[in-house]
Amino acid sequence: MKRAYLKKNRILLPILLTLVIGIGVVFALSSYRDYLDELIYQERLNQMTEVTKELYSSMDMLMSNEWATAQFIRDGAIGEQPETLEQLTEYLNKIQNTYHAGSNKLTPIAIDDSGRYYTASGKKGVIYNIEKLVDCGERISSVTNIFGTDETDILFIYRLEEPIRLGSCTISYCGYIKDFSIIINRYHTDAFCGQSAAYLMNDSGTKLYATDSEARGQIFVGRNIYSILEDMTYTHGNSYASCMQTLQETGNSIANASLNGTEYYLCLHRMADTNWVLMLVIPAQYVATNTQILIDSVVTTLLFAGLVLGIILVLILIIAMRMQQQEQLYRKEQENSAKIEVSRQEAEQAKHAAEEAFKVADAANNSKSSFLTNMSHDIRTPMNAIVGFADLLERDADDPQKVREYTKKIKSSGQHLLGLINDVLDMSKIEAGKTNLSLSEERIADVIDGAETIIRPQMLKKGHVFEVVTHDVQHESIVVDKLRLNQILLNLLSNACKYTPNGGHIVLSVTELPNRRPQYASFRFTVQDNGYGMTEEFAVRIFDTFTREENSVTNKVQGTGLGMAITRSLVKLMGGQISVQTQKGRGSTFTVELELQISDEMGNASFWEQNGISHILVVDDSAQVCRDIALSMKKYGVEVKYALSGEEAVRIVREDCDFDTVMIDWYMTSMSGRQTAIELRRLMKRPCPFILLSSYDLNDTIAKSEELPVDGILAKPFFVSKLRTTLDEILHGHEKGEGAEEFSALNGLHFLAAEDNELNAEILKEMLKIVGASVDIYENGRLVVDAFQRSAPGQYTAILMDVQMPEMNGLEATRAIRASVHPLAVTIPIIAMTANAFSEDIHACLEAGMNAHVSKPIDMACFEQTVRRVLGMEAGEEG
């Protein structure tokens, strides 16, 4: 069966190859023929150009001679100055004899101003349409037949500058009439086998004369030649419009077109000193005839050669196939040997891959073992502190000062332990793909201030110089997961603080980059320090999990090795990029780039317009700070003029004191902010807000100094929203009254709580008792639901709901309360108080019907703020 199949293929394959080669040859010859047709066309154009160039030149020279004759007759008439018609006839007769007019068919003629003509033989008559000649200029030519013969005549006349008066008539033109065939017959060439025809037409295409033979008949039958040309089919990219345009621009035009199935070449020439167009028409078969014959011979020869070559190739292929069959057995043996070798190599590669996989697994186990070792050390350290200080508390319970000191250290160690646990849980959630973003509209200034407030105490504790700078921030209101962005910045800043020796320098930079797409702003967050730095080898692995650089310096710094891995994962989740540049002993620079959606701007132009703020003076010795403020305010229509010193500011105000707000840096090299403010207030003609610019950590120092000559203090870095808030407080007095006593908003409130852990229940009760609140606690959700249904309306201010409880969890209990018939079932605030602190846990609580979420361990300040919000106390206090 297989042999029959192979035998059949041996027969079919040569046939298929022959067909393929034949089709290829035909296609190649067809393409070549197209090329030759274009070549022939260019050759015909060249021949037409050469032949007609000399022909047109001769015709133009002939027409010039005819006009010279007409001018001679006109000048002679002027010189003779005849006074009677008889004298004019004698002059015309003399001219006719001089030029042997009989043989040249030239008839001298004079024309009066009424259109009547006079000849040497005494003929008289009226020229038809003479009124059309009046405004034609000095020279007038026209094809006519005024004598009524079978011949077509051409009229060449000149206008007399001074008409000749002969009694009752006035002679205005002199010249002659000539048989047109004598002229047009000279427009002839033998280059096209005598098959050309000539047509004379005016500018509008009206046919004036044609030289077609009577035997052949006219090629263009009709009065208007241009209408016939317009209906012809043009080739080689030509058209009637392009042909006419070329004639208009150059005076000559050659085109190739077909009429009634016959192909022609058209040569058009605008005759000199007339409004006539002369056209030569030649059938295409008579143009470059020898070249066409040669090309046809070449194509025929190539076709025959192609067929012979195809047959030879097929024979060669058949022979090659037979040789190939003889080699198949040898190849088969070679292939089998090669397969055996490949199998051997694959086995070796599989063995090598298994060894590599074992090494990777072993390295992963070592990494996890190292991580567990580090975690054991890092967790035990704060745990030891907590247990140790608890023992000390028990021993020194009677010493309030030591109790407060031990309590403070226990809380600090507990917070550190909570941070370690959060890192591990965050990394676990990220690796499981369960981390989601909770987007909300935020101000970039609030995010930066929040991170700065948390990290600055750590910076001060180690004596670091900590700066926050901004560059080109144009969009302050963004849509972002504030918690996650804050976590990214705090991880980077915390690392910089920990891995920089005391007294270091750390800078957080926020830069807005050019937008890559509409409705999104691109931000670059950079954390730069001059700390220990990293080796190049470790910098490559800095974002891997369970990774910490081990050396005598960094081993003293506690951590899980997950911070940078979490940071990279969060940046990736937010669609951004993170990178690091570092050098051992020189410090590190971490860069995060994020694209954040732009929200509606909070500091819109209406605030500045409503408060009449359009002209601000900024005094700061940093040119970059001044330029950033000017750029930020420009979009709100506020003009900013700035000075780099107090002295320069004084000069500016002396020239222009019409400012709506003045911002002054506190520390400047020559003239201090205080001195500058005092001097500028003295020079200002009208009062305006004076605002002091200062670093964040100098606010308290400045505020506690002697009386300030300013109305408010604005901490750097500069944000439009912060300036707006400060001005709002200055202009409208949004400040709390002095002497207000501080008290807890929880005082006097009574809560219902679900908590199944006795220790947590006891802590909650005591913490609420401290702030003057009380609570009824039940150990599961079922009991809480029953207690609420039994309660009188208003008995409980709110319900504190644990989530993980026996019998009925917090989500189920919340749904049961909301579905109950109690009068306050729908309105009573329910606050989740649980250790389930991830965003999806918060979302589940809100979906179940809760109003807010507070994570364990309880931070009383955060708890009080949450209670104030859900009870609507914040709005009431502001009122």
Summarize the structure.
The chain has 879 residues and is an alpha/beta fold.
Task: Give your account of this protein's structure.
α1 (2-80) packs across α2. Strands 13, 14, 15, 16, 17, 18 and 19 form a 7-stranded mixed beta sheet that branches. The protein has a 6-stranded antiparallel beta sheet with strand order 3-2-1-6-5-4. A 6-stranded antiparallel beta sheet has the order 8-7-12-11-10-9, sandwiched between helices. Helix content is 49%, strand content 21%. By secondary structure, it is an alpha/beta fold. The radius of gyration is 53 Å and the shape is elongated.
Which keywords apply here?
49% helix, 7-stranded mixed beta sheet, 879 residues, elongated, alpha/beta, disordered C terminus, 6-stranded antiparallel beta sheet
Radius of gyration from CA coordinates: 53 Å
Largest sheet: number of strands, sense, barrel closure:
7 strands, mixed
Class based on secondary structure composition and strand pairing: alpha/beta
User: How many strands in all?
Assistant: 29
Counted by DSSP, the helix tally is: 24
Instruction: Kindly estimate the percentage of residues that lie in beta strands according to DSSP.
Output: 15-25%
What percent of residues adopt helix (DSSP H or I)?
Answer: 40-55%
Mean pLDDT: 77
Which regions have little confidence, pLDDT < 50, spanning 5+ residues? 734-742, 875-879
Q: What separation lies between the terminal Cα atoms? A: 101 Å
Shape: elongated
